[in-house]
Amino acid sequence: MVNTAERAERTYTMAGFPPFMRPPHPVPASHMRLIGLVGIATLLGAYDLQIFGLAAKQILAEFQLTENATGPTIALFRLGVFGALLLCLLADVIGRRRLLLFTILGMALSTAGTAFAPDYETFVAMQFLVRVFGYTEDMLCIVVIAEEVEERTRGWSIGALGTLGTLGAGVAVAMFALVNLLPFGWRAIYVLGAVPLFLLAWMRRGLPETRRFASAAAAGARPANPLDAWRPMIGLLRAYPARLGLLMLAVAPLALGMAPSLALMPTFLQSEHAFSPGMISGVLIGTGLVGLTASMWIGKLSDRVGRRPTLLVGIVLTTIGMAGIYYVDTLWLLVAAILIGVFGQVAVGIQVDAYSAELFPTAYRATSSAMRFMAGIMGGAIGLLLQGAVLAPWIGFGPAVLMLLIPAPLALIGIYFLPETAGRRLEDISQEPGRA
């Protein structure tokens, strides 16, 4: 006869990992499988989205464009956030599972299309679609983790996704080091990213719907018709206008400066400091290794001390680090600035992801995550456009990036006035519509 302990679900403490990477409490096997399944998508998505920022010099040269087109090109890609917003609105109506199956297949097809783009216009169109599906994936993966894992390990779990995202970016950096050796150059890097996406689309067939969404659907706390996908947005604006506004204030000014500073860094280092692709890869791999090992620690720390203090410190350090990249000339100071800035971006991104998924009820969670994501993407797109089309021709490439970092500290205001969410049940942070 099987006893209760034997029937209980197996849990994992990750005893073989360093203490700072272990979860604060044992994680059930089902949650670990879920983290792995959505985390692989985070890894592959980070790989895909990182390529252009690394290989922009080579890609634009093939299409007979100068490096000043880098920012505006990325800004065009980022307009895909509007398509992602529409898809995420559906997630609060038809569920998380269906959209995750659809978006991973869309990412695979558009990534493959990018590799065979015959001209600049087709390349931009394919990368636009990659962002539509990739941004939706990013938002929904965080929502799924927030809705399924325990509040005691929610920050650590989202940090684990950040670790996998950092690993994906690191793989892209490693592949970029070979860009001049691979057959067909940068196109081969996109092909290598598309193949595992098709495999993941097949693996996701057994992905379950989240329990919280299923419960909300059974209780009638969501529209039944996909044509009513706009209703969660209206409900969100009516129920939580102040909380949503503070979140937007925390995200938009930070993205305005951080997106150009991070996306344009490889181009800047090649042009202003004569870094070779191999040197850039070496610096970023080193930084990525630190982020890879510390992302879960940041999530675990925020579970203990709170999201707000972790974010406040992270924003200050990130701003200083990213400014240093475009200001200092000494090599060791430059490497230190890259280390602080890039790692800080990873840490801040993880916390913002967690915060936005925790602040709002299940009926609005995908919608709120989409609106937060759109604020960040559009803030970054505006910054990239200003840098490439307005400021760089006027004051120079590097000084233009520095100027856009000036509004970043405004994000501290929004974070300061938002409620703390760490260690709290989602139902205690915000109540479902129609429930007392």
Summarize the structure.
By secondary structure, the chain is an all-alpha fold. It is built from 19 helices and 2 strands. The chain has one domain (23-208, 220-419): MFS general substrate transporter like domains (Growth Hormone, Chain: A), CATH 1.20.1250.20.
Description:
The chain is an all-alpha fold and 436 residues long. The protein has one domain (23-208, 220-419): Growth Hormone, Chain: A (Up-down Bundle), CATH 1.20.1250. Helix content is 75%, strand content 1%. It has helices at 4-7, 29-62, 70-78, 81-94, 96-115, 120-148, 154-176, 186-203, 211-218, 231-239, 241-263, 265-272, 277-305, 307-325, 331-358, 365-395, 397-404, 411-417, 426-429, and strands at 11-12, 27-28. A two-stranded antiparallel sheet has the order 1-2. The protein starts with a helix and ends in a 7-residue tail after the last helix.
N-to-C span: 44 Å
Strand fraction equals under 5%
What's the shape?
A: globular
Radius of gyration: 21 Å
Order of helices and strands: HEEHHHHHHHHHHHHHHHHHH
Low-confidence stretches: 1-7
What does the largest sheet look like?
Answer: 2 strands, antiparallel
CATH-derived topology: Growth Hormone, Chain: A
Helix content: over 70%
- By DSSP, the count of extended strands is 2
* Count of separate structural domains: 1
Number of separate helices: 19
Structural class: mainly alpha
CATH class: Mainly Alpha
CATH superfamily: MFS general substrate transporter like domains
CATH architecture: Up-down Bundle
The averaged pLDDT comes out at 82
If strands are numbered along the chain, what order do they take across the biggest sheet?
A: 1-2
